[in-house]
Specification:
The protein contains three helices and no strands. It is an all-alpha fold. It has two domains: 86 residues; 42 residues. Helix 1 packs antiparallel against helix 2. The longest helix is centred in the middle third of the chain and has 61 residues.
């Protein structure tokens, strides 16, 4: 994509030094008859301020790079800690065995509940089947309807 010659560039920089330079430029523009020596001093001062801004940005960039470079080591440490936690969990599961002795009565009750739920589910399914069958029977007429006859008009 070609860049527009009039497109502005953007950077993240502190605003206070830029505001100071803007004020100085306005002051220079408003001051009539300033001699060239003062004018060049002001320009040199603006260049120094600009350089200071660039140095601050470079320092911030370096600090950010240093902090980012620490991330892989911290992530490796975190992964190692998680692996250690998993090994502790696995070891405790092995020590307990497949089922601990204290858990047997509860497991037996759970098995009984599961069997009871299966019986209830079977009974519910049988009821649903019966209701469906009854519904089908109700849709069909029980007796054939007699043909419709015209009745003679009532005698008065």
């Amino acid at each position: 994509m070609p860049q527009d010659e009039n497109a502005e560039e953007y950077e993240l920089v502190p605003l206070s030094p830029i505001r100071k330079m803007e004020k100085r430029i306005r002051r220079l523009e408003e001051t009539p008859g300033m001699d060239s020596k003062d004018f060049f001093k002001e320009i040199v001062e603006m260049v120094r301020m600009n350089q200071q801004i660039v140095e601050e940005i470079a320092k911030a960039n370096d600090a950010l790079r240093i902090e980012i470079s620490k991330l892989p080591a911290k992530l490796d440490e975190l992964i190692a800690n998680l692996n250690e936690l998993l090994s502790f969990i696995k070891a405790s599961a092995v020590e307990e065995g497949p089922v601990g002795e204290s858990m047997k009565p509860m497991l037996e009750r759970m098995d009984a509940l599961i069997e009871g739920n299966k019986k209830i589910a079977e009974g519910t399914q049988a009821m649903l089947d019966a209701v469906d069958e009854l519904s089908e029977k109700m849709k069909k007429p029980a007796y054939p309807r007699p043909p419709m006859r015209l009745l003679p008009p009532p005698k008065s």
